[in-house]
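Long-time lurker, first post. I've been practising inverse folding by hand and with some scripts of my own, and I keep getting stuck on stretches where the structure tokens seem ambiguous. Below is the full token string for one chain I'm working on. Before anyone asks, I'm not after the true native sequence, just a reasonable design that respects the backbone. If someone could post their per-position residues I'd love to compare against what I wrote down in my notebook.
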């Protein structure tokens, strides 16, 4: 999620630009490479504890790291360690919804009212408008802005509770009139999946995506599941002016909008499979990539589709993927031309002012390293 639970960062977790120190890179990536230099800006200049990029080209995997995965011990990021992916979760949820569309069980342009009667006050809000952030629904995570993150660490939440928080506020605009990133959209989308399939969202993601693709490190935690699997970098968040270990966290307060646990190689494999047509039929993948102009970190030409962002790269072409931030971790993941898959993760959220642009620049360098 990009606006975090304590400072409007969980939404940056969902926006693409957030889609968009020793190195362990393969010999093909020298220590002075633009990828390593981009990560060093995050750690040496911005003060983020550590950052890692995992790049997959076919069967070749390259890893570049900077800084540390643990401030107490100085250990680097563990190779392919677990982390919380924030709003990257949205691409998984949108994929499940679009699979249901392909099965004829959900219609993109049907009102949410058809699947969740009485939940939303405006029957003009459609499934498509949820997935594309054009519903006008208030972003419930804004109500957590400025709170002590420790008060949220073990809180957790049920989906209906999160929607109720959003509905205490008036809509931002009429459905379809504008684009505005709102985590509430994906809480409702997750509820649709559960109503239509009669299974919980965690199980549907496993059955439809993670098990078929062999993503053994990826899952959507249920309430009360607060521990990250080992190995993992320590996830830090500012508390009282210091960086606190926030690795343990009940992410059901983010749920379908940003609760996913995963690994870099799993995300590379997921986005490669999705954009390669292994998870959706051509018609649904086309809809997913049909974008509207979106403010993704102020990058010119960026757009947002259905749980998928498209952002121009400095080397030409577009990267398709998503970004996310949630207490402890900031990430960007996606696919550039020629099935060049990139996942960047930093072990801090929220990050200092201006760091999001540096994350985007480091991701761009990695995405362009396959050109």
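-- Answer (accepted) --
I ran through it position by position. Result:
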């Amino acid at each position: 999620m990009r606006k975090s639970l304590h400072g409007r960062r969980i939404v940056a977790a969902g926006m693409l630009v957030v889609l968009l120190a020793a190195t362990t890179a393969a010999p093909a990536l020298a220590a002075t490479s633009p990828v390593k230099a981009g990560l060093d800006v995050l750690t040496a200049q911005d003060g983020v504890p550590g950052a890692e990029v995992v790049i997959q080209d076919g069967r070749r995997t390259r890893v570049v790291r900077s800084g540390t995965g643990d401030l107490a011990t100085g250990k680097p990021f563990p190779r392919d360690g677990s982390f919380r992916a924030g709003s990257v979760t949205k691409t998984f949820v949108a994929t499940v919804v679009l699979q249901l569309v392909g099965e004829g069980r959900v219609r993109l342009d049907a009102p949410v009212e058809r699947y969740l009667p009485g939940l939303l006050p405006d029957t003009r809000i459609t499934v498509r408008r949820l997935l594309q952030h054009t519903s006008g629904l208030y972003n419930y995570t804004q109500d957590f802005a400025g709170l002590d993150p420790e008060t949220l660490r073990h809180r957790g939440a049920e989906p209906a509770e999160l929607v109720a928080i959003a509905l205490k506020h008036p809509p931002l605009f009429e459905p379809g009139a504008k684009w505005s990133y709102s985590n509430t959209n994906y809480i409702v989308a997750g509820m649709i999946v559960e109503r239509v399939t009669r299974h919980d969202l965690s199980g549907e993601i496993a059955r439809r995506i993670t098990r078929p693709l062999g993503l053994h490190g990826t899952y959507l935690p249920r309430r009360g599941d607060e521990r990250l699997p080992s190995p993992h970098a320590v996830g830090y968040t500012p508390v009282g002016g210091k960086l606190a270990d926030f690795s343990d966290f009940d992410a059901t307060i983010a749920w379908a909008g940003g609760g996913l646990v995963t690994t870099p190689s799993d995300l590379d494999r997921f986005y490669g499979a999705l954009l390669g047509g292994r998870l959706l039929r051509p018609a649904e993948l086309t809809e997913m990539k049909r974008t509207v102009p979106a403010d993704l970190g102020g990058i010119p030409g960026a757009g947002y589709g259905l749980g998928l962002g498209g952002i121009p790269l400095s080397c030409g072409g577009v990267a398709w993927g998503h970004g996310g931030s949630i207490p402890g971790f900031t990430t960007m993941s996606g696919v550039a031309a020629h099935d060049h898959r990139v996942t960047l993760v930093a072990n801090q959220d929220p990050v200092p002012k201006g760091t999001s642009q540096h994350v985007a620049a480091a991701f761009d360098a990695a995405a362009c390293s396959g050109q």
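A couple of notes from the structure itself: The two ends are 30 Å apart (CA to CA). Confidence is low (pLDDT under 50) at residues 1-31. Happy to go over any region you disagree with.
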